[in-house]
């Protein structure tokens, strides 16, 4: 049974003046333990799709299910890193992580949660900043705290919306490895839905890459490389360039279509 089943989903944001259909008859089935990356142009509906799986939005048509159960709201079985890494502004970095942990692991004692929070802050290189409030941290630092919070919850499903977008190249590479390791650790792989604009990142992390055009899924590509993966190793494979070219074609074709549409 697929861990996440998105079947014939449509969704529109409603305001006083108009309802724009943002997703149209979207179908996506993600296996238990699968790592799926979503890419596509800005505004095509990636975050909306993630928010539907998070249970923060409900579909207007179709179904979003977790292992056969309809999603009717958020739950600690799904840890999320939002595109605009939303930390609680009134809590220190460490308490933000502790809060996530205690939501997900209700029986854990406060001092155990504190230890775990410190451990995960260390994994993302933020161990010195646990006592700081979000307003005292840079965007990339806040993003790392949000990642620590999501990973420390150890939920079976991870929903990550451009989680490494604000990080420098070195830190990004480190956290890609950390995520790949944590995904694979333990007796059961997590199910991951990961939005990115970075094709190399998607090829490094994903079992499958889903390309979206406005409102729909346009194409899906399997990523064939064995794990653990290193960018230096997989990028040398002959298939790497062809997969990358295929994805770039999808991106550029979209630009041309969009440009044509603008002139009509
Ligand atoms: N809260 C909202 N109210 C109304 N319209 C919205 C809202 N959020 C998003 N939209 C619209 O829905 C469409 C899809 O937005 P979404 O945030 O899902 O795109 P995205 O693919 O995540 O883009 P990006 O790569 O820029 O993050 C866009 O046209 C956007 O303007
Ligand atoms: Mg988005």
Walkthrough of the structure:
There is one protein chain. This protein has 264 residues and is an alpha/beta fold. It has eight helices and ten strands. The protein has a domain at 2-77 and 156-263: P-loop containing nucleotide triphosphate hydrolases (Rossmann fold). It has helices at 46-54, 93-104, 110-123, 139-152, 169-184, 199-205, 231-234, 238-263, and strands at 2-14, 19-31, 35-40, 61-66, 69-70, 78-81, 157-161, 191-195, 208-213, 216-222. The strands form two sheets. The chain has a six-stranded mixed sheet, sandwiched between helices. It has a four-stranded antiparallel sheet with strand order 2-1-4-5, with helices on one face. The longest helix is centred in the C-terminal third of the chain and has 26 residues, at 238-263. It is globular and about 50 Å long. The model has no long low-confidence stretch (mean pLDDT 92). Bound molecules: adenosine-5'-triphosphate and magnesium ion. Adenosine-5'-triphosphate binds at residues 13, 22, 40, 42-48, 83. Adenosine-5'-triphosphate (ATP) binds next to helix 1.
Summarize the SSE layout with pairings.
Layout: E1 2-14, E2 19-31, E3 35-40, H1 46-54, E4 61-66, E5 69-70, E6 78-81, H2 93-104, H3 110-123, H4 139-152, E7 157-161, H5 169-184, E8 191-195, H6 199-205, E9 208-213, E10 216-222, H7 231-234, H8 238-263
Parallel strand pairs: 3-8, 3-9, 6-7, 7-8
Antiparallel strand pairs: 1-2, 1-4, 4-5, 9-10
Helix pairs in contact: 2-3, 2-4, 3-4
Bound molecules: adenosine-5'-triphosphate and magnesium ion.
């Amino acid at each position: 049974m697929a861990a996440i089943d998105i079947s014939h989903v449509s969704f529109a944001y409603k305001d006083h003046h108009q309802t724009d259909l943002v997703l149209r008859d979207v179908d996506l089935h993600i296996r238990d333990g699968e790592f799926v990356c979503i890419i596509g142009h800005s505004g095509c509906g990636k975050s909306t799709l993630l928010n539907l799986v998070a249970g923060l939005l409900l579909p207007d048509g179709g179904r979003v299910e977790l292992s056969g159960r309809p999603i009717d709201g958020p739950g600690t079985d799904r840890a999320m890193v939002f595109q605009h890494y939303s930390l609680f502004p009134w809590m220190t970095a460490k308490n933000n992580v502790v809060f996530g942990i205690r939501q997900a692991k209700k029986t854990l004692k406060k001092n155990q949660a504190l230890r775990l929070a410190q451990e995960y802050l260390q994994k993302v290189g933020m161990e010195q900043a646990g006592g700081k409030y979000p307003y005292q941290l840079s965007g990339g630092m806040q993003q790392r705290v949000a990642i620590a919070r999501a990973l420390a919850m150890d939920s079976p499903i991870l929903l990550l919306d451009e989680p490494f977008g604000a990080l420098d190249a070195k830190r990004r590479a480190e956290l890609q490895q950390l995520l790949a390791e944590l995904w694979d650790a333990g007796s059961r792989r997590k199910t991951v839905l990961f939005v990115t604009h970075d094709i190399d990142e998607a090829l490094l992390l994903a079992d499958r890459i889903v390309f979206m055009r406005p409102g729909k899924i346009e194409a899906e590509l399997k990523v064939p490389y064995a794990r653990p993966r290193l960018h230096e190793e997989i990028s040398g494979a002959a298939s790497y360039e062809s997969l990358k070219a295929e994805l770039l074609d999808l991106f550029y074709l979209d630009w041309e279509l969009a440009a044509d549409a603008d002139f009509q």
